[in-house]
Amino acid sequence: MTVRLLAFAGLRDVLGGPKRELSVADGATLADLWAELVRARPQFGPLEGSTRFALNGRLVARDATLAEGDEVALMPPFGGG
Predict the structure, then answer these.
(1) What is the phi/psi pair of residue 17, to 5°?
(2) CATH architecture for residues 2-75
(3) For 27-37, how does the pLDDT look when each residue is reduced to its tens digit (9 = 90+)?
(4) Span 56-74, mean pLDDT?
(5) Alpha-carbon Rg for the chain in angstroms
């Protein structure tokens, strides 16, 4: 199945642009997607602990299951003030 990736800040540089489509196995989780990204671009590896995910506009945990056409945002740490 295909999901759409959006990447922000430094994650965009590692991804090679702000948007990309990625094929993942049926039933894949965000953790599976992250593992695939690390395999393709090892520079993602050290960013694992600080990257947050939004799935279709909602912050979610890495065990969230993906579906065809989902939009996954990769976000660096952020704060407000």
Answers:
(1) 155, 170
(2) Roll (3.10)
(3) 999 999 999 99
(4) 97
(5) 12
pTM, 2 dp: 0.90
Any idea where the domains of the chain sit in the sequence?
Answer: 2-75
Q: Is 79 left (phi over 0), alpha (psi -120 to 50) or beta?
A: beta
34/30 Cα distance (integer angstroms): 6
Q: Which residues contact 18 (CB under 8 A, 6 or more apart)?
A: 6, 7, 8, 12
Structure tokens at 1: 């199945």
**Per-residue DSSP letters for 39-59?**
HH-GGGGGGGGG-EEEETTEE
For residue 74, the SS3 value is: strand
Q: What is the pLDDT of residue 39?
A: 96
Strands 71-75 and 2-7, bridge-based pairing:
parallel
Rounded to an integer, what distance in angstroms lies between the CA atom of residue 76 and that of residue 7?
9
